[in-house]
Amino acid sequence: MEAFAWDKLKKIIKMAKKNFKNEEVSVVVGMIRDSFARDRAEFEAFSPKYSEAFLTELSAKIIEVETRTGTKVFLAQQKALTTKLYEDVDSLRPKLTRLEGYLFLAKGTLNVAAADFGISAVRKKMSGKDVEGLLDRLTHTLQLVGSNTAALEAVGFTAEAKTELESVKQLIQATNLEQNLKMDEKEAGVQSNDGLLTELMDMVTEIMDIGKRLYKYDNTEKTGDYTASTIKGRIRHEGGSITPTPTLPEEGILLGAVTDKANDKPMLGVSVEIAEKELLQITDEDGEYNFDALEAGSYTVKATMEGYVDTVIQNVTVTMDEVTELDLEMMGM
After folding, report:
1. Segment 220-232 mean pLDDT
2. Do residues 235 and 29 make contact, with C-beta atoms less than 8 angstroms apart?
3. If 0-12 CB within 10 Å is exposed, 13-18 middle and 19+ buried, where does residue 248 land?
4. Contact assessment for residue 330 and residue 266, using Cβ atoms and an 8 Å cutoff
5. What is the pLDDT of residues 141-198, one digit of tens each?
6. Which of 155, 159, 128, 139 lies closest to 269 in space, CA to CA?
7. Residue-wise burial string across 253-268, b where 16 or more C-beta atoms lie within 10 A, e elsewhere
């Protein structure tokens, strides 16, 4: 749901396995531009290339990219759609809890075991914000509800309750489709301006590299202003992101990438689970996963995929207000 053409820019700007969310990329660019403007005299002392004209060109490119691709408008639309989508998803929770109660009362009269209705699987998809997976599992649940209508109605489950579940599913489907269509539209706009975007990101990547070289030994605090992982932590904890993930004082972030041990290639579609919290993430095309706003503590992280040996890492510590990175390798069977 979140992958679109900004991923190309993420690959340019991120350091090894550092992943920015799509909506954060323009924020990152702006932060680096501001740091460069503050330190420009020191950059120019390093090389005359970094004159006032370089800053002017960089600022102009940022404005042009945002104008051509409609970044701010798009992000505002995506934020609204995402908010609505997760509100619809959350509205499922009480309905699923009630359905579980009727399954308990109807045990022995159902044509399958109550566990086979897959409500726990639906909840896992909800926790992992895997909308497509949620819709698939919810469809399975509703099919079994339909085939057990008589048994469920005998203990008080009503046709109206089933209709409510189906209505929520349709709302989620509609919003998810709208979001995907807008992403397709955005991707077309980004691709049509590929040259301009590449020029901008080349400038930004160069600034990050020189900035770290300038301040690596003399001013480590400034080095963070040009380091991808530090910037990422700041925008997620300080609200710099356009759509920041709320982070409570006792929460941190766990993220990383999954690779095939045989060839070191990123693995798409791996299930990464935090057993203690029943949280699940599916890796993207870069093999990356990201658990935002995770309560500080020690966890067991498990990666599974058909055809591979499960990878289990125990005692992974997530620290308050910090980003914990955990890269995983998987071996084929």
Report:
1. 78
2. no
3. exposed
4. no
5. 999 999 999 999 999 999 999 999 999 999 998 888 887 776 666 555 555 556 677 7
6. 128
7. bbbbbbbbeeeeebbe
pTM for the model stands at: 0.41
Q: What pLDDT score was predicted for residue 232?
A: 67
Give the other-Cβ count within 10 Å of 250's Cβ: 11
**pLDDT tens figures, 4-42:** 344 444 444 443 334 445 455 667 788 889 999 999 999
Please name the fold of domain 251-330. Immunoglobulin-like (2.60.40)
Domain ranges of the chain: 1-244, 251-330
In whole angstroms, what is the distance from residue 215 CA to residue 35 CA? Answer: 12
